[in-house]
Automatic annotation (TrEMBL):
The keyword Transmembrane helix appears for this protein: yes
Upper lineage: Eukaryota, Metazoa, Chordata, Craniata, Vertebrata
Region named Disordered: 318-338
Residue ranges annotated for the Palmitoyltransferase DHHC domain, each copy included: 134-254
Topological type in the membrane: Multi-pass membrane protein
Main subcellular location of this protein, as a coarse class: membrane
Species this chain originates from: Crocodylus porosus (Saltwater crocodile)
Gene expressing this chain: ZDHHC15
Any one GO MF annotation of this record: protein-cysteine S-palmitoyltransferase activity
Pfam families, per database record: DHHC
Ranges of biased composition (kind: Acidic residues): 318-329
Subcellular location: Membrane
Protein name: Palmitoyltransferase
Family matches, as InterPro entries: Palmitoyltrfase_DHHC, PFA4/ZDH16/20/ERF2-like
Alphabetized UniProt keyword annotations: Acyltransferase, Membrane, Transferase, Transmembrane, Transmembrane helix
Positions of transmembrane segments: 25-45, 61-79, 179-199, 219-239
Amino acid sequence: MPEAAGPRAAMAVALSRGFRWGQRALAWVPVLLIAAVVLWSYYAYVCELCLVTLTNPVERVAYLAVFHVIFVLFVWTYWKSIFTLPMQPDKKFHISYTDKERYENEERPEVQRQILAEIARKLPVYTRTGNGAIRFCDRCQLIKPDRCHHCSVCAICVLKMDHHCPWVNNCIGFSNYKFFLLFLAYSLLYCLYIAATVFKYFIKYWTGELTNGRSKFHVLFLLFVAVMFFVSLMFLFGYHCWLISRNRSTLEAFSAPVFQNGPDKNGFNLGFVKNLQQVFGEEKKLWLFPIVSSQGDGHSFPMRTLCEARNPLLANEEQWDDDGLDEESQGAAEAAQN
């Protein structure tokens, strides 16, 4: 039996590794699909429309010049969204080996909460769980900074996590949220420009005024694809613009962050201008480029009221019940929502 267990264990490990590699490979399928569509659109616009269909040289040069400016910005932002690694919490948020043993050996939940409160005493954390406990990640073994969440796909805690996007095969958070927004904006502009400049020749091909068979196919489908992507991206981009105006992440839009006085969906809302600066920074000349300019370090964020700026993890720990918010916190939560 022991001799048979060895090969079985090795096979199980090999199968597990193979499964993980398969998952990682499949995760790139949406990215490759987008890349294929973009490459085809480039060929169809540059070769079939501009070089074959257009006859006016001035119009051809103008179309190509503007197209390539938008194309470069579009590809640049997409590249940055894919390959900018999500930021993880600093080492100071990880608990020590001694604290880890103390926490894991303790069976009483109230004592575990007290241990975490002691560990977090010197950390800039101001948000809690729904029942008033300190936000702790059992998998990463760290105290979660404000707005930090664990991504089950990336298997890491991500600073100011917004969501995991399969279309960029990356977790969107503090380090690349600006790049992702610019990617959506330039994707919309790319689709809109193609649709606007192709439409006239789409009509000519549709009515039979132009008869080039191969170019007709590319031009017709170019308009359909551009309009289809524009409509779908418009809703997504509009939603994220609304989130920026309220200084919320996608996760916070579904579940409001919890402060000392309870949940407050507007806890990080500083006003439209300051909310915008949180993502794009104060240097407006950098706003339209995928260059790092966001404010802060991703570990702490300014809050809406001064009373919430005091470290709530150090005071009134006893006012939180294990079963949920107490009556005072519930009243504050209702007031914040009204």
